[in-house]
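Look over this one:
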Amino acid sequence: MRKLLQKQTSAPKKAKKGPTNTATTVEESKPTIGLLYVAEKYEGWKEECLKILQAKYDKGSRSFARDQDISAALKESPIGQLADFKIILKQCMPFLRFKKDETLAVGPEALDVKLPFDEMQVLQENVDLIKRQIGLEKLEIFFITDESARNKAGSYVSVLRQTPPSPGNPVAIFMAALVFQQNSARTGA
């Protein structure tokens, strides 16, 4: 979250021409509000990949079936029947490798579609600490499945589309209070 906030608040590469009141502009645009989006479980192609890995994992030997067997199961799965399967496959392979490595490190619970704890509850219990550590006035935490919550992101909703949250990896969006108020007014929140 700190890195994302730093990236979002870093100065633009090109300076605007003409006179501006820098102190006012910086203060008005300084992010003081954070929106944190959480996913309860893996969905779509990630969920299908996890199901395949669960079926291809031998708990006794703590090993997976051959990569060719996993790829074959992926091609035979519902996502293997989609027209854009080749595009999805490019996303699946790194995810499969990551989850295989994670499983070997922490055990078969890494293949669960949900976390073994309530991520939303943990974040809610620590909201004051997060606000202090990042320097925010307000932090709201939502499930990504809540459409009205996604609408609060306004133009930043593209961030959620490009890198959607997954269990254990929430996505944070930071904005100035003025932008947040405008987004809230548009969504009626």
Observations:
- Strands lie at 33-38, 57-58, 63-64, 138-143, 171-175.
- Residues 44-111 form one domain.
- The two ends are 24 Å apart (CA to CA).
- The first strand starts at residue 33 and ends at 38.
